[in-house]
Amino acid sequence: MKSLYVASTQGSGGKTTTAVGLCLALRARGLTAGYFKPVGTLASRAEGVLFDEDAAFVADLLELDDDPADVCPVVLDEDALHDVLSGSEVDAMRRVEAAYGRIAAGKDIVVCEGLGEIWQGRFLRTSGAEVVRHLDLATVLVAKFAGARLLDDIMYVKDALKQYLLGVIFNMVPESRVGLVETQYARFLERSGVASYGAIAQDNRLSAVSVAEIVEALGGTYVCCEQYGDRLVETYMIGAMSPEHALRYFQLTPNKVVIVGGDRAEVILAALDTPTVAVVLTGTYVPSASVLERAEENGVPLISVDADTVTAADGLRRLFGRLRVKEPAKVELIAGVFEERVDVDRLVADLGA
Predict the structure, then answer these.
(1) Is 122 left (phi over 0), alpha (psi -120 to 50) or beta?
(2) Residues 6+ positions from 249 with CB-CB distance below 8 Å
(3) First-to-last CA distance in the chain?
(4) Domains of the chain (ranges, CATH numbers)
(5) pLDDT in tens, 260-295
(6) pLDDT, tens only, 310-344
(7) Are 301 and 225 within 8 A, CB to CB?
């Protein structure tokens, strides 16, 4: 049995998408692939059981029948912090090791998803670097494109993980920079003893969320057009400009949700006259009759939230930073991207699987 730890240079860098993509690619090669998240941060409870929402989501997506408590055995919530600060003895690594053994049983490869950065979880002695060393995990680094500074981040991780780092998958690379990354960046890393397994171009479809998911995440309610809740949104814009500049601004970006104060009718109308999937109205204002009529004509859901624009925007930022795959087409998209952009066969060979 082999295992592969998926680390990242930063939060929201694409670890979950990479973990899912690798599991799908490994299955396509006839291998039994498991999924494991040693430490999670998105705490939730159901029937008194603590679990990590993202880990539970991936396990459900991959149709795994492992115990949710094993899929993510350590969740960094307020209780965990309190135990450490109060001086209680917390042997989180023991829980990680025991759960890992159960997940690995009967698998050819276990894909282990790390936290946002390799030092997270250090206060429980379960940081990414510590887990990798303790469980002897080969590691692939998901490197979200950030220009030349990204090379510093990669070399820092290399110094921290040493022989455990197999290589890098570049992610969210602007299409205009893919060639540069696949040649010059890749050659630099290969000279430094780090394999380059490919570069995934920026693709907003991978991070798209449905209108219904936006409503749920923001605790909003539909004002109209609830029947279009399954439509996908690729990005968001904030309607904070003057009405005379709004139309030109909103025309720049298709497939978006616009966040705007519910009392700004002219800005809302401008958003509705451009390729907008939904509009989030902040401040619990009742939209005017003209706004409601235009939204219904164009089939654009209006969503009312009891929050200010900054709070709503922060909620969307977090939502777009997490993988949400409820549509079969999106699963197929992820699988296709990994077959096209990532040298999975080389990675499997380097892993010795």
Answers:
(1) alpha
(2) 237, 241
(3) 8
(4) 2-202+323-351 (3.40.50.300), 207-320 (3.40.1390.20)
(5) 999 999 999 999 999 999 999 999 888 999 999 999
(6) 999 999 988 886 666 555 667 888 899 999 999 99
(7) yes
